[in-house]
C-alpha cells in the first residue's frame, strides 16, 4: 500500500525535501511512504505530471510549505468590483492597496492574474542564499536576486511548479475518492482546488489579532480548536469539542469550497479543519499533526481508508 507525500523545494540548493516526521507517521501505519515531487516546466507540465502520478497511489498526504499563488483564489476584479469595494478599477494592479473582501481591512492585494509567462520570467535568476521564515517547522533556502513581484509581497516560498502539481493532485484525488489528508498548506490546496479562497494573511486581513505561527518546539501545543460534532475529524481523533493543537501558518481559509464542511475552528474563528462528508476520507487540518503523538489517529485513519480502497 503506497501513500504519497508531497514535497517542498529547497530552491537555493536545488533539492526537494519533506520533513522526516511525515515519513515516520506514514511508515508507522504499515504503508509505504513515497515522496511526490513536482517537475520543472510550469503549471501545465505539472498538471500533466499529476495525472500520471495519481494512478500509483492508494492514499495521499498533501504536506505543509509555502503559499499558493493568489492567481488561484483571487476573484476576477471585473466580476467582483462591488463585493471588493474597489472604486478605481483602472488603478487595480499588483501592489496596490485594497480592502479584504470579507472583513474590509486594507491589505496588499493582487488585483489581476499575472500571466504564467510573466511569473516564470520573474522566477528565473539566482544569486546568494538567504533563509526565509520556517515553513512547516523547517527553514527553506530560496534563490535570491530575482525581480520583485509586488502582488506576491508578504507571501512565502511561492512555487509555480508545486502549485500546478498539488492543485491537480487534490482535484483528481477528490474526483477519484482517493483517501487524502491535507496538512496546513495542504488543507488550503484542497479548499482552493475545489473553488474556495484564502486570506493572504490572517493578521493583515483583520481576521484575528493572534499570531498563528509558533516558535519551536513544534510538539508544543499553543491553542485549542473546537471540533464539529458528528464530523469525520471527531471520529478520527477521538475527541469532542475542545482539542489542543500546534500552529505554524499565517494564511487561512476565507470562503470554504462548496463541497467542504468546516470540521474545526479556533477560538478566534479561524477555520482549522475541513472535510467532504460525501467522500470516504477527504480531510484537511490547518495544524501539524505529524509532530504530535496524540494526533497519530489522523494518519492511522488515512492508512485504513487507503487500505480499504486498495483491497476493494
Overall domain count? 1
CATH superfamily: Class I glutamine amidotransferase (GATase) domain
Q: Give the neighbour order of strands across the main sheet.
A: 4-1-5-8-15-14-13-10-11
**Proportion of beta-strand residues:** 15-25%
How many strands?
15
CATH architecture: 3-Layer(aba) Sandwich
Q: Provide mean pLDDT, rounded.
A: 80
Whole-angstrom Rg: 19 Å
Q: How many H/I helices?
A: 8
- Percent range of helical residues: 10-25%
Largest sheet: 9 strands, mixed
Structural class: alpha/beta
End-to-end CA span:
13 Å
The level 1 CATH classification is Alpha Beta
Written overview of the protein:
It is built from 8 helices and 15 strands. It is α/β, with parallel strands linked by helices. The protein has a single domain (2-70, 156-311), classed as Rossmann fold, CATH 3.40.50. α2 (43-53) packs parallel to α5 (160-175) and α5 (160-175) crosses α6. The chain has helices at 20-28, 43-53, 81-84, 116-122, 160-175, 185-193, 232-237, 297-311, and strands at residues 2-6, 8-10, 15-17, 32-36, 59-62, 97-99, 106-108, 180-183, 198-199, 223-227, 241-245, 252-253, 261-266, 271-275, 282-285. The chain has a 9-stranded mixed beta sheet, sandwiched between helices. Strands 2-3 form a two-stranded antiparallel sheet. The longest helix has 16 residues, at 160-175. A hairpin with a 4-residue loop joins β2 and β3 (15-17).
